[in-house]
Every structure is written in structure tokens, then in C-alpha cells.
């Protein structure tokens, strides 16, 4: 997993509440067995018409937000089903962080296991970021996980909280497999002392 320490990137505003995982990655795209390739289908039903044509009014189709790597959204982002594909789609599209007043718990947990940082700020702080991203061309933020701060070059600054375990995993780039492999020597020693045939011997 790619570590997250500090990131500076362009901000795309999608400031509305209760954006669910079925909108983030619609169900018809869940047939893929890889973790890659979901980015082109991110927010598909909002980005494209029924005929498959780009919706020019949707924020991610606007050239000014091309290459955005920070998404700012409304409260309860990622609600709905627990599909991890939603996080894969965001990450494949290029988002490294999502800022919102609150997140669905399972979605936030899936993000932390895939190197995407969820930043919880006050409603008025998120609203201000969304306003600036809408009004200031090429608006950027710096998110620093080591200091737990969010700042821009226009005088905005805020602090966020994150639990120590999640912060450690993101800083070090450790998913569940990475955490397990930290104990590889102990696992090998245990396996050497407990041969598999003996464990299942009847």
C-alpha cells in the first residue's frame, strides 16, 4: 500500500450529503475481479448520460478539475453498501484523500486499507473548502498526516483527528497483509514448531 504522509493536490468539490457507494461505483461494474480499472467508471451515472455521453455539468468532467487528487464532499460520504470497489474506483481515478464532515464507517475503514485518507473537518470548514475550490482556479490543498493539518495558500488552515492505529498504517503504508508480514519471523517459528500434518492428525 502506498504510504500517505503529506500530499498537495488540486481539489474537486462534490459538496452534497449522503453520496452512497452505488453512485461512487454503480453495481454493473462490480463484475471485475481485479482491483484496477474501476477509475473510468467512477460516478458513472453522474458523469455520463444514458447514451454514454459525458455530462458537461458534472464536476469531474470539467477541465478546471482535471487531475484533481483531493475530493471534498458532504456529510455521510460513502454510505450504502460495503463494496470496497468504491474506494478502488476513487484511488484508480487518482484521489488520494477525501474531505467531508463525516463518513460511513465501513467506507472509511476500506479507505484506510487502500491508502486513501479520509479527513473529517467541521461542516463550516468543509463548506469553505468547497467554496474556494469552486471559485479559485486550480485551487490546491496540502494535507499533512504527520501534523494532522489541512492548509492552502490563501490563509485557510484546519486540524483533523484520526485514531493512532489508522494513522500509523497510512503513514507506513501497511494494509492487513503488511501488518501480518511484520510478524513473519514469529509466524515462521510457530509453523516450524507445529508441522501441518500433526495439526490435522486424527
Show unreliable segments. Answer: none
Overall form: globular
> What Rg is obtained from the alpha carbons, in whole angstroms?
19 Å
Strand content: 15-25%
CATH architecture tag = Alpha-Beta Barrel
Give the beta-strand count. Answer: 7
Instruction: Determine the number of helices (DSSP H or I, runs of at least 4 residues).
Output: 9
Arithmetic mean of pLDDT: 91
Fraction in helix: 25-40%
The CATH superfamily is known as Aconitase, domain 4
Distance between the termini: 41 Å
Major sheet summary line: 7 strands, mixed
Number of domains: 1
SS-based structural class? alpha/beta
Regarding CATH, which class?
Answer: Alpha Beta
**CATH-derived topology:** Aconitase, domain 4
Q: Strand order across the biggest sheet?
A: 4-3-2-1-5-6-7
Instruction: Write down the secondary-structure element order.
Output: EHHEHEHEHEEEHHHH
TL;DR?
With 202 residues, this protein is an alpha/beta fold.
What does this protein look like?
This protein is of the alpha/beta class. The chain has a single domain (6-176), classed as Aconitase, domain 4 (Alpha-Beta Barrel). The protein has helices at 21-24, 44-47, 85-93, 105-112, 123-135, 164-172, 176-181, 184-193, 196-199, and strands at residues 6-14, 70-73, 97-100, 117-120, 140-144, 149-151, 157-159. It is globular and about 65 Å long. The model has no long low-confidence stretch (mean pLDDT 91).
